[in-house]
Amino acid sequence: MKLVKVPQLAWYEPKELEIPLPYSWQVEIAKMAGYDHKALTPDEIKKTIQNADCSCGYSNDTEEGMEQLIYQKMASTANFLQMKGEFKIAAQVWQEAAELFGEKHEKRIRIELGNNYYRQKRYEKAVQIIQSVLDSDPNNDIGWFLLGDCHAATKHHDLASEAYVRAININPQKAGYRVHYAENLMRLGQLAEAEEEIKIALSQEPWSIPALKTHAMLLEQMGQKGYNKKLAAEVYRRVLHLDPRDREAAKCLRKLLR
């Protein structure tokens, strides 16, 4: 076996993934443009953007496009790191993006940072950042939604409901907002209201697994108060039909069928 090294995280702390391949294979490495060049520092990136028309052969008309491309690459890297659970490194990437593109993408970056701290379970810091966005942009539905998630995580369910309602009023077509609101209403014991919200969410996205699972949990909870649990079991079957690997749904279904 021979090892082929493939670069990863080219935009932040580059690493190499070693892939073992048979010696009999003919392998060619297609390197991206600039692969062998020295990496730029954040200050050098900023200077290059500011002088794009004279130092890199770009005209003023394409400078904004190049800046947007760099921002998108940094955002993609940060999101990839968050998917891998590398939240602290991702936060550093967002901070560097804020230094480079703070004026143009300030709200988006602060929202992403708030989400990052939320996923780190640093809820107080997340609320502080998200609230700063909402103070200047009270119609930011994503901000209200994340604020609701933070309050729900810290068991401030009344505040969470208020935030979810604000998000829904701004963007009523977002089924995910209603799903989280329904889950919060369930924690408050407001099952009828939760059922109304989850029905609307399912009418918007009938095959949404999070919506179906929340509906099943709601029916199960209502079943404990005298309702029929068979419908909950049927909803869990629908979830498993969409995703047979969903262990949580499988476990809940087995529990209901005992």
A few lines on this structure:
This protein is mainly alpha-helical.
Model description:
The protein has 258 residues and is mainly alpha-helical. Helix content is 69%, strand content 5%. It contains 12 helices and 2 strands, in the order ββαααααααααααα. It has helices spanning 42-50, 52-55, 60-83, 87-119, 123-136, 141-153, 157-170, 175-187, 191-204, 209-223, 230-242, 247-257, and strands spanning 2-8, 15-21. A two-stranded antiparallel sheet has the order 1-2. A hairpin with a 6-residue loop joins strand 1 (2-8) and strand 2 (15-21). The protein is flat, with a radius of gyration of 24 Å. Residues 53-61 have low confidence and may be disordered.
Residue runs with pLDDT of under 50 for 5 or more positions:
53-61
Strand arrangement in the largest pleated sheet? 1-2
Structural Rg:
24 Å
The percentage of residues in β strands lies in 5-15%
Largest pleated sheet: 2 strands, antiparallel
Number of strands: 2
Keywords:
single chain; 258 residues; mainly alpha; 12 helices
Q: How are the SSEs ordered, and which strands pair?
A:
Elements: E1 2-8, E2 15-21, H1 42-50, H2 52-55, H3 60-83, H4 87-119, H5 123-136, H6 141-153, H7 157-170, H8 175-187, H9 191-204, H10 209-223, H11 230-242, H12 247-257
Antiparallel strand pairs: 1-2
